[in-house]
Automatic annotation (TrEMBL), chains A, B:
Gene Ontology CC annotations of this record: cytoplasm
Naturally occurring in which organism (per UniProt): Populus trichocarpa (Western balsam poplar)
Superkingdom of source: Eukaryota
This protein's pathway: Protein modification; protein ubiquitination
Annotated ranges, domain BTB: 90-166
SMART domains listed in its UniProt record: BTB (SM00225)
GO BP, sorted A to Z: proteasome-mediated ubiquitin-dependent protein catabolic process; regulation of proteolysis
GO MF, one annotated term: ubiquitin protein ligase binding
Official protein name in the record: BTB domain-containing protein
Length: 273, 273
């Protein structure tokens, strides 16, 4: 909160600004400010207010459009309808299958529409339009995924919405990468970047590398190279050296390049008086 | 453009504002202004800029969501694909039919997905989920509509987009009303309201009445009651008296109520000194 800066007062009925000769009253926050803290003129304030209103209207319009285009997921309908395949007109099912094919109960099929899958994923498009096995049988097997993740994945294709925790975001990012659903991949990556910290940075770095998540990779790498002194003691680091030493090399290369840049910056700064 | 108001100058290195004692420089438009034209303080300007940035980011996110949820219309696919019913997985066709059933060439069927129709319109939902004739035959006849309007209607259900002129907006509003597609109805109504003028006001009023377009009705009515002196000479007015005199009564009632309100307002104003 800005304090009152009035030191003297003078009556000035023409202006709506405060009558003190050195302070004015902000149209927006109604606080007094001195000339040093002056922001905009009235005209620009009014323009900015109009712009804000316009942007808010545009947001409302877009939200209505999203609500209209958002599909009822056959999974929602599941709850309210009698039979999964009947009134939803689904024409394909997806089944989560683990590679071992031994452990666990058989997965519940997730019903869907070919038209929706084809519309959201170039991989499903190629699969279903080219009379492959999946198109003929009406069954798509998705390996190495839990039923919950598959269900969320299909739901996202209909609604552009998902309820994420870190595990689910990783699972969905993997599926999004595999089926080329860019919008979902960006959504998961954004979530994971927001959850990045020193504790999960090495794991996240490796994960981002494996699944081609560029923004997450850069953020994790930057976190790691800022804490190099602590790195080599970490369990995840030792494991990474074992499992994928090339990724460790990339960390050192990034660190080196950062040091060189910082040194160059310092040099050029010290050249100036 | 605001002119320079400088009258004297004083060096004031602490402030970023112009050093003249009576003028400041607007952070936004970089013009000089006097205390009378002061808008916001710097803090509020910065907050407003941040808000604008945030709103713009939200708009970008929503646009990406719309692009993701927007369906490929089977009509778009028509152009790029070999057969309409094949790779699009459409399971229903809509046919424009005129009631007389005699004039004109038979309409080209418009292919669609039951799942999309059901998702966008409660009327299609009831029709297709309840094993009615349309569901069994996979053919929905739409009466009193041109092929072009039907095509645009179906396209809108997939994309939330339509290319409007006044005729098309009227045709689509009628279809939207009939099939309870609220989003499309609002879209057409907004367009038609933007095109309202004295020349089309009586027609628009009657149209809005017939199709329950409340906002359009009010705007047209307000236009008409503002021009009552010219109303009775209009051809459309004379026709409306013939065809639907109750609508004409409503015009007079609205006019009367406006007069009463204006008089009451004048009275209460004249009471004050």
């Amino acid at each position: 909160m800005r304090g009152h800066l009035c030191t003297a007062s003078r009556v000035d009925t023409e202006c709506e600004t405060d009558s003190d000769s050195e302070t004015m009253r902000c149209i927006s926050c109604k606080e007094y400010y001195s000339r040093c803290d002056a922001g905009t003129c009235k005209e620009c304030y009014e323009e900015a207010s109009d712009t804000e209103e316009e942007l808010k209207r545009e947001i409302e319009d877009l939200k209505a459009k999203v609500a209209f285009l958002r599909f009822w997921s056959p999974l929602d309908l599941h709850i309210t309808h009698r039979s999964p395949a009947g009134p939803c007109f689904t024409d394909v099912v997806l089944i989560a299958s683990s590679d071992d094919g031994l452990i666990g109960t058989p997965s519940v099929p997730v019903p869907a529409h070919k038209a929706v899958l084809v519309s959201r994923s170039p991989v499903f498009k190629a699969m279903l339009e080219n009379e492959m096995e999946e198109s003929r049988s009406g069954t798509i097997k998705i390996s190495d995924v839990s039923y919950d993740a598959l269900r969320s994945f299909v739901n996202y294709l209909y609604t552009a919405e998902a309820c994420l925790d870190e595990q689910m975001a990783c699972d969905l990012l993997v599926l999004a990468e595999k089926y080329e659903v860019k919008h979902l991949k960006a959504y998961c990556e954004k979530f994971l970047v927001s959850k990045l910290n020193w504790d999960n940075s090495v794991m996240s770095y490796a994960f981002a590398h494996q699944h081609n998540a560029k923004h997450m990779l850069e953020t994790a790498l930057s976190l790691i190279t800022d804490n190099m002194d602590k790195l080599t003691k970490r369990k995840e680091y030792i494991e990474l050296v074992e499992e994928d030493p090339r990724l460790v090399v990339e960390i050192y290369e990034a660190y080196l390049s950062k040091q060189v840049n910082t040194a160059a910056h310092k040099d050029s700064s010290s050249m100036k008086p």
